[in-house]
């Protein structure tokens, strides 16, 4: 059953009526409701199209955070073969907020990693809602070192509200760990493609997204701080998150204009959560295309391309 967002309430009511009529039609052979159901389905489709035709920044933020949106484990399940997870940072411990390992991607060996938020309450707690501790970023560095050693491309999937902001993270060197991970991305001698598949929050995102190519799903967001955090700082009122989202230019379309991302990957009508398998296929087609475009480049060229890419951000 779909989880409807606040702005989708009219659509939820229509779909509820359709489900009720379908139940009545199947339980009473003498009752023919096919025409009525068909009309309501057409109305529902039109309403879905109208709702998603011109989403504002705050509604896109809600879609980006949808709990049924494809997560890292979905991408691994549907697009990668022979995935071998590699745990631990060899310094402190394992962080379940970032999962990574080696795998086969469309016939090519790769290192793949990404944030995992979890779906059930138990899983979300296990994965810390996708908010990584320092050991998560140190694990990312370890995986990128492995990629360099074996000359493997790196693919990352970003979906986090931000790195874990608690006392434990600060005690273990959160800022330093993110900086080291970002540096390792920028100095990696093999191709790297990152995809913002949900939220791309602050340093927690860029720590594994300083890539040669940064892709973003159509309704994903990428920002230096969450809209709620920005509103709390600027207006001392988190309830003004909608105003902050508009001001921060965090949507995929605005990010492409400012050269923060390189490509927007289309989502199914109504968001990625309405077709998880189809979304994974579309995203991975884009990843494969971008990896192919980088395959001819030397290690020096890959590093220089990343350098020039980040210098170009925000320039006219």
Topology overview:
Layout: H1 9-27, H2 34-53, H3 57-64, H4 72-79, E1 81-85, E2 98-105, E3 108-115, H5 121-126, H6 134-150, E4 154-160, H7 167-171, H8 174-187, E5 192-201, H9 202-206, E6 213-217, E7 221-223, H10 227-234, H11 241-248, H12 252-257, E8 263-265, H13 276-294, H14 299-311
Parallel strand pairs: 3-4, 4-5, 5-6, 5-7, 6-8
Antiparallel strand pairs: 1-2, 2-3
For this entry, give a set of tags.
about 325 residues; alpha/beta; 2-enoyl-CoA Hydratase, Chain A, domain 1; about 50% helix
Structural summary, described in words:
- The protein is α/β, with parallel strands linked by helices and 316 residues long.
- The chain has two domains: 6-54; 61-311, 2-enoyl-CoA Hydratase, Chain A, domain 1.
- Helices cover 49% and strands 16% of the residues.
- The protein has 14 helices and eight strands.
- It has helices at residues 9-27, 34-53, 57-64, 72-79, 121-126, 134-150, 167-171, 174-187, 202-206, 227-234, 241-248, 252-257, 276-294, 299-311, and strands at residues 81-85, 98-105, 108-115, 154-160, 192-201, 213-217, 221-223, 263-265.
- Strands 1, 2, 3, 4, 5, 6, 7 and 8 form an eight-stranded mixed beta sheet that branches.
- Helix 10 crosses helix 11.
- The longest helix has 20 residues, at 34-53.
- 40% of the residues are buried.
- The mean pLDDT is 91.
